[in-house]
Amino acid sequence: MTLVPVTYKGGIHQRDVIIDLIEDLGGYIVQKYMVAQEVVLQAFVPRDDIELITRIAKPLFGEITESPLVGTEIAVVSMSLEIHHLPHPSCDFAEYARRIGAKTNMVSPARGPGKRISTINDEERDVINEHDIAVFAFGNFETCIEHKWPHMRRGVEVPIIVMGGPSEETLRRIVDPPADGYVGSVGRFMRRTKEAEEIGKLDEIVAEVTRVLEKKREQIAKDPLSVAPARLMELIREQVPAIHEVTSPTPLTVQMAGLRVKLPYDTYAEELRRLELESGIRLGDLADVVPSRMRDYILVRIRPFSETNTVI
What is the pLDDT of residues 54-85, one digit of tens each? Predict the structure, then answer.
């Protein structure tokens, strides 16, 4: 059974019908929230059952749309949050990506601005590497990007999208070593993205991020994970009561190959390792439970089948 990421939007009336249907079909709801009189569900559902869900949702004034960024966590790296770098493009993309299912975090290096000193430290690098992909938001000047890039990307292992003021062709020429994706003509500007052309640029960034993430999904499919992150999320919800007391909007953040659990590492790491997934199989047998560099959270990195010889 192949699960695909989707977003359901519909009226709050009889919303439990759709929630129960998704769960009965073997799907998983990643996030649920309400906006006015509308409920929004970000979920993984069986590909073969999308037509059924769409048919049942229609009388409830609901609709299903594909959302390839559901279940991903993106680091948006801005050179700084000072007025000099005007973080409007970074913030606007981060907000736009959240609306279509991604979990985004802003990362601003302490020494990002300035050609002479620009670099990232070990903690900043490790935080970026905890994400599925990183979007580096540079400024308008070719020479600045060309000089900064080798220092800023050093040690970053996740796929990187470079976003900047020069054209895409120019970015491809000056960015060495190469990045995984490029979006040009998005530099610093002193306004929010409201015009149709500016919204189109946000769609272009999303399309480039989606393209790179699809390649990563293909690689994961060749050596499947020992347990699906969405399924692991449900098991933690059922067996770790403390997760329901977390006030964060996403106490469990689903990633492509793991989870970010927003509980203190020292207190709950061993409990998570002992979490029983199936009879005789515990989470510690199939995943690495390690401290996150982001606050005192827990990072669960699921091992592939080639390492565990187990898929549940």
Answer: 999 888 888 899 899 999 999 999 888 776 65
What are the φ and ψ backbone dihedral angles of 304, each rounded to 5 degrees? -80, 170
Distances (CA, A) of 122 to 126, 146, 149, 156, 259: 6, 22, 16, 10, 22
Query: 245-252: which pairs have CB atoms within 8 A and are 24 or more residues apart?
Result: 249/33, 250/31, 250/103
Residue 287 binned pLDDT confidence (cut-offs 50, 70, 90): very high
**CA torsion, ordered 73, 194, 208, 88, to nearest 10 deg:** -60
d(CA 293, CA 298): 9
Fold of 3-66: Alpha-Beta Plaits (3.30.70)
SS3 at position 251: coil
Domain residue spans of the chain: 3-66, 73-220, 229-308
Contact 277, 227 (CB under 8 A): yes
* Model confidence, pTM: 0.92
What token pair was written down for 104? 């985004």
Strand order in the sheet with 287-291: 252-254, 258-261, 298-302, 287-291
CATH topology of domain 73-220: Rossmann fold (3.40.50)
- Cα separation, 67 vs 71, in Å, equals 9
Which three-class secondary structure state does DSSP give residue 249? coil
Residue 127 near residue 107, CB atoms below 8 Å = yes
